[in-house]
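Many introductory courses stop at the sequence. We go one step further.
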Amino acid sequence: MRLQGKVALLTGAAAAIKGELMGFGGAAAHLFVREGAKVVLTDIRDELGERAAAALRADGHDARYLHLDVTSEQSWAEVVEAVMAAHGRLDILFNNAGVSFPRKVEDITVEIWERELGVHAKGVFLGTRTAIPAMRKGGGGSIINTSSVMGIVGSPTSPAYSAAKGAITIFTKSAALQYAKENIRINSVHPGYADTPLTEKRFSDAAVRQQLLDRTPMGRLGTAEDIANGVLFLASDEASGSELVIDGGMTAQ
């Protein structure tokens, strides 16, 4: 029970139903409750999120769903206030919401650029900023931000995505330095190519999938559970800080 008594808020976590393809947030939610946490799932896909939370409760876990637009300062304030009102504490934040619009630079519109940077970089910033005062009241906490291997190396298909994930990578380091002495750990996780609802359509193309496999030394794409195991470690008191790359060896080349 590595997270016994802890309260965790997860963004981009509606896809959390057993038997269906899960995202990183959904898979993490299942590991978190198994290890004793109370979880608050958030997303903009309300029907799916409500079903996921209900299924977790039916299995005997403490889970609820709240609507959260991660690009909205007001939405963040309302969700964290609701968590504090219900539980009196916030111990873990998994900033995981994401979008992806693969384009060549010449085909990236201003709207796409702002959407990528908004959901990823702005969303992580707002979530981190809003969670810190709540965590301080409880004596500390852990914030895990989903970056990507494409926040470390360039993406050949998604420059806006890579820029947004790179922003998360460096923001995480800076924020970690500011709050380490307050026992608030801020770390990033860097998934490689993985099968999730976000990638399902694109990765189902046989030619695309083979290209990704060719770039991955382990010879398989990642799963949401692969990433969630790393997130669980960073959320637990066992972790003291990390930029955790989980990519099947892709960036080792």
